[in-house]
Structure prediction request, 418 residues.
Amino acid sequence: MIEIISHTISQMKSQIIQQYDAPHQFEPLLPQDRLMGALLEKASDLIREAASLGASAAPGAAVQLRELLRSMNSYYTNRIEGEHTRPSDIERALLRDFSKESDVARRQRLAVSHIQTEIACERLIQAKLDAGETVVPWLYSTQALEWLHLQLFGELTAEDLTLADRSLLTPGQVRTRGVAVGIHEAPTPTALPAFLGRWEEVYGRSRRGEASVVALAAAHHRLAWVHPFLDGNGRVARLHTHLALHAQGLTNGLWSPLRGFARTEEKYRGMLRAADEHRHGDLDGRGNLTEAGLIDWINYTLDTCIDQVRFMSKLLDVGSMRERIHAALIFEESKKTGLRKEAVLPLHYLFSTNSELGRAAFKQMTGLGERVATDLISSLLKKGYLATDSAYGALRFAIPRAALRFYFPDLWPEAEAD
Prediction:
């Protein structure tokens, strides 16, 4: 009798574990069709406004701005994880100048790794597009997630990869032990292939256009819920969302949701937790998790993206940029740095076009004499307002961190203040 009871209890436990480990535990992955209308409309607004920004943004600033935004993205996504790094520390780390303080150096390495990963991912996406491959389905594969995790953590030191329990994180490896995040107990390791397979099936096959934008927003939460890696899941989920938007041609290197997530960090965390909850009664969808919470999360993500697009649209307005360049030069001139307000016309020209200027043409546009104009160019290059490939090469628009508060006020306030 005791053996029968013990066997029965064992079977019941096994059934409970199997039921808990079934992918239906994180359904619904998308809201019901009858509730999708408003979300699709908002996704359409995002697509339209992102396309408008991409078409109207000054091309001369695009390359420099993309480099700046990568550093900013790294700063903000790591700040969400409590890994705060000063923007100036990131700038030095990119020049391989790491702090002698071990914790600061560790955070610098994390920041540089995120920047390099973003570059590598965008290049891979572009290579796939150039080869005629469909990128979106691949992005939702387990292979892509493992590759992304490997890129983020593969070049870090053993010290950087040491977890709180003194074990080591293995970059690119789906976890092999159970984890709990707050009150949420993530699926067991043996169940991860089924959960990730379902995640790929639903989101990787979403229709192009508005439906795929809604899908990438929902996918962010469900990936965080599955928690496929021992550590780094938040960074992977946020970068995945950024890349999914990029792959659909929506960012053009001009904006990212990562800034919006970090600047509404309390809400970001709260919305993720709320979407973790179980269904609130019979009117809250048909799955195990709350459908209302998922819809709120999708709305929040889309609103955040739209807000970032609109913010950058104002900053990249060609007309008002001339006044901002002038203000930066006046400020520099007052500090006796060798910069002069006469540089406003050629700098605005470089910002507004996708062109370079020969040094003679730049000098002519300033209206200054040869010697004064030559000194001005030298000062602009030294202060980072211009870029060039050689000592006598053509000149390109550049964005020094000192000019951020004039060129792009409030884009990265922490960098302005640092």
Summary: DSSP finds 19 helices and four strands in the chain.
